[in-house]
Amino acid sequence: MKHDPATAFAQRFAIPPPIPTRRVMGVPVVDASTRRTADWLLAGGARTVFFLNAHCANLCAGNAGYAAALERADAVLPDGIGIELAARMTGGGLTQNLNGTDFTPALLRAAAAQGKSVYLFGARPGTAAAAGRALARKIPGLRIAGPATAMTVRAIPVLCCGRSTARAPTSSWWPWVRRCKSCGSTAMPVTCRRG
To answer: Which residues of the chain form beta strands (DSSP E)?
Structure first.
């Protein structure tokens, strides 16, 4: 079989049909199960994914850049009871709360089952590597490709961008997310706390 660069490019960057969303506090939020969302994220193609909690939704009201980044994202995952309550107050609840502490391990288990590798990025030196070792112990078959830097990310199926606190991402994240998406990775901010 001959290698066809056009076909390889199309497969690498192909995105399956959009995942269902609904607007909550002005932001398009994923309205799907954990399984469906994980399958969608791992189906191939580059994606930008954020978590949205009530605090982050409130920040959108006063930060046009942050609101625009969420609007451009391929998926914004509902994170917490505040988003669920806001959804209920505007016409019905969401299919599932896709908070980071529950969804991320499910996504990583699905990646392991599919034989996909994961890069971890962020936090202080050594934190991502330590998190990778802990995740590999907890999730059999999970392949941690390593802690990422701007120079090492090349078409890794899932790139978890860690931050050391529960604060919302800052504008310094957005160029990184664009860079990740341009190389075929799914960029997903995830809070990683030490300890």
So the answer is: 21-24, 27-30, 47-52, 75-78, 117-122, 143-147, 158-163, 186-191
